[in-house]
Design a protein that fits this description.
By secondary structure, the protein is of the alpha+beta class. It folds into 2 domains: 1-37, no CATH class; 40-134, Homing Intron 3 (I-Ppo) Encoded Endonuclease, Chain A, CATH 3.90.75.20. It contains 4 helices and 8 strands. The chain has helices spanning 2-8, 12-19, 23-37, 95-103; strands spanning 43-45, 55-58, 63-65, 74-76, 79-85, 90-94, 117-119, 132-134. It has a 3-stranded antiparallel sheet, with helices on one face. Strands 4-5-6 form a 3-stranded antiparallel sheet. A two-stranded antiparallel ribbon has the order 7-8. Strand 5 (79-85) and strand 6 form a beta hairpin. It is globular and about 35 Å long. The chain starts with a helix and ends with a strand.
Length: 135
Amino acid sequence: MVSELIRVGLGGAYLMALLMNNRSRVKVAKRRQAKISNSGERFVPCPIKKYQSFYLVGDWGTIKKVDGKILTQSHNYGKAIVNIRNSKQATTFTVERLVALAYLKRPAKGDELTHKIVHVNGDVDDNRAVNLMWR
């Protein structure tokens, strides 16, 4: 089974998670593999004004620096988060909020913080713009 997974081209993180029988890590590793192979991802400047000149937000949920380095996403209470910083301060944002602010029509002015973001397919690890909507 292991040699067959390697033959298909699945990466080491996926293989390790599979061997450890950890379903959540398997999901994340699969998604990372898909993001790496996805060359059609569109990027726009970060929707938070303080960070626009430092970061780009992709429609597949990838956050990267303007120099091209992809940020590592960690999880807090089941949601993907990233730490972004400008020259003065660092802040933690959920990936879903950055993607929603960048690609979805915004709720009424000032209501972005009170509205919740819903994942259409129910998978909180799926932060693609087509899978998010404001509630």
